[in-house]
């Protein structure tokens, strides 16, 4: 008879308790049916005595409770084979277990055991797998040596430093985990374990291996990362059958020739060591398939490398290569090559010899040209972050397909060296931006009128000669328009910070910051690599002698400004370093978090482009200084000229003529196709529909890149529309985003579409709730005569730009859609919220808080965009949401959230006088896993937005100690927010962390999000429901290939039943159970698989 599985959950406890009270109850039949009990996280400190009534139970999962002993009756469960008691409160080994002679798998990890009782344990004859990770063993419990049937023993995260000789009695032991212990020398007793297959000894302090290791003939996998090796232990060469060796994060700089004795070696991880020259001895490993030498200081590859015929995957990223090591081209069987993050400047034609190459990673190098031969390759190529001119960057970033089309187009038509640069004028209102930008364009002096203020942005072009032109963006200086900057500024252009030189007062402390400093910060935050230069206007109104004085004063200030920034970074870094010193050695993950914070600060500081050294001084009245400015622009453009197919340039011109000639507000796909194919070579007309479409995308992306049009290629609904007249878009933004009540009111009152009463309702909606209905939108834009389809496209675009999100005001009226614009809100926090979210955390409630601090200014629009993005999650969960000017309150199913923006009261910034700004996300509730879910989601949204729109922004982030929050401490302990960036579970999570400011130890779960294992366990139901059988089978293959699971484990998964042809929840469940017992690599691989299968929803769920 087939094995029938009946699972009982937490509710089983009630029934068992009732049985305990009335033993004769007929309910006892039900319990007999159960084969599995799942009572994890059930808040219990003991198991009911009546548990032995579940006679047929085979597996009990009772992790994450507060158990410290077991009822004696448990020994009467004859069929029990699996028992999970991890994450409980056992301080002594539960003797009651010893009667379970059929028990095969016992999990006691994450308890506080320090020894194992003698004799009794011998009765656990069937035990094959034992987990004792993260307990308090200081010596190896010798009693374990009696468990002679043991196959797998987990003792990670203890304090072991030696092993008894008796261990050799464990003849069947195949897998042994001893990582994260205190071994300073290799325990030679292990050498007697001749059948051991996998040995994990990473995170110890080993520096040598004894020769005796060669006796371990069964050993296939050996992990030694993060130890203290400075010399490759020659003894390892005796492991001739070893297949995988991990020596990552040691201090190796050489490899002995003897390594060629390791004929079985297939995988060798040696990244993050101290190699400065390529270890030639490795070339003797002809059977090696995967070699990871990334994160060293290599700059060469020996010719002998071609001997490594078996090599398939090769990591050389993050080294010091300056030229492409030609010898690599001899590796004709190579499938994946990682050379990113080096300083490569060239790619040889011979690269095509690597015919099997599937993945070639070359991002973040110094490559300017790609060889045309690259078109003959069929590989997944990544060349982003290189200073490419041929093909131009923006083409290359689109992948090998686009690169091929570019080179083909160059064969079909001439190559034209052309340069069209986007120039953006930023600065305070009335600085003289419009005047100088018009003067530049016309080549003669022009002054605006006093009342001629720019709203949002004015765009123009200046064609210096046939091949050099500039797209000019002149931004309105007023606060309200700053939200437009990310929409219009292209990162490859030039930014001029413009100020009125005659009004500039070197003696006034605030002047520099207001007119120059803040604008530089803004530019560098949004476009860290962009070239910024200064222009002082009104030269005609300044005495000649004053010009020099003022400019040198500004130059001094510029230096101070850069210095101050540097000091800010340094102060932050020092704080990190000091904190690191304070942290006990054992809390590796906390140190790691501080380390990544320090690294991040370093990167941010390093990527800042210096300000152009010369300050341009000009007069738009007399034209003085303008010729010099023009010369600079032309030279700048010449040096960044690109090689483009003539045909593209022609097509681009056709589209640009529509800016002045056509009457359309936007261009539809048919029109674009016509314009582009007008003067195309005949060969293009014969292209397939898809090829034609791709070519059009290439041209549009190139136009969008240089600021000629606005086009969103990553949004399917907008892809087929081109905003060629940007002023239309600007006008709509102006009309909708204005804070000017009178203006809005006038427009509404004038509208023919609505009554006076409706007009005042709409006005109320806009200014008190930030809500703009579709109807309101069309009233506000009435004067632009947009078609209704165009209004739709515009609203689509505003959503895409995350200026607003859609809300259904009234379910019964689907036509009445509205949009919420946080940017428009002007009211303070609603007093009624004081009861929903009182300032003191209510009893029995936990508050998790993340604070992100910005140097004395919160970037314009950052908070608003974040608020919009939150809707993606909150909207789905049908939550109650209340917004005000600087915050959002939301009631979710399991918890409450409050997100705010404000100045930081407790400003500890000693460098600058101005208080820092802070965006904070706080979540309250009683279930930690829910709270972490919401908080980490908010964190990753905010970080994504910063990465997308403000990649150079300086910020620091903290997790506020929940204990201090509940105690209302004035000076709460702050933990580094980078804890949230650690790969879930790579770092060992301590049980407790010290709240430094109050001196209390608090549970680590309050400061660390759940580990990946916990996440997988929590999300198991959804994963089981959504991972399909074909996907699962693919994954099994990958996990097998990478050696993470064994054949037997894969078979166990496959033998589970499937529901139908697609669904197989049982299989997935067993698979997840298996991988949660594996090292973190299992999690990384799972994420990668889900990504490759494009299961983004599931990926989000577990990240
Ligand atoms: N004498 C003199 N006046 C100038 C010069 N440049 C600008 N102005 C005047 O200064 C005022 C402001 O100039 P705009 O060019 O409109 O300033 P803006 O920076 O575009 O201002 P916003 O659009 O509000 O951001 C106008 O009255 C101009 O006539 C200059 O070089 N010399
Ligand atoms: Mg202006």
From TrEMBL:
Pfam families per record: CARD, COR-B, LRR_14, LRR_6, LRR_8, Roc
Record-annotated CARD domain positions: 1008-1103
GO molecular function: nucleotide binding
Source superkingdom: Eukaryota
Keywords linked to the UniProt accession: Leucine-rich repeat, Nucleotide-binding, Repeat
Biological processes, Gene Ontology terms: regulation of apoptotic process; regulation of signal transduction
Residue stretches making up the Roc domain: 414-640
Entry keyword annotation includes Mitochondrion: no
InterPro entries: CARD (IPR001315), COR-B (IPR057263), DEATH-like_dom_sf (IPR011029), Leu-rich_rpt (IPR001611), Leu-rich_rpt_typical-subtyp (IPR003591), LRR_dom_sf (IPR032675), LRR_domain-containing (IPR050216), LRR_R13L4/SHOC2-like (IPR055414)
GO cellular component, one term: cytoplasm
PROSITE patterns: CARD, LRR, ROC
PANTHER family: LEUCINE-RICH REPEAT-CONTAINING PROTEIN, PTHR48051
Protein name from the UniProt record: Malignant fibrous histiocytoma-amplified sequence 1 homolog
Annotated organism of origin: Lingula anatina (Brachiopod)
Lineage, highest ranks first: Eukaryota, Metazoa, Spiralia, Lophotrochozoa, Brachiopoda
Gene giving rise to this polypeptide: LOC106162429
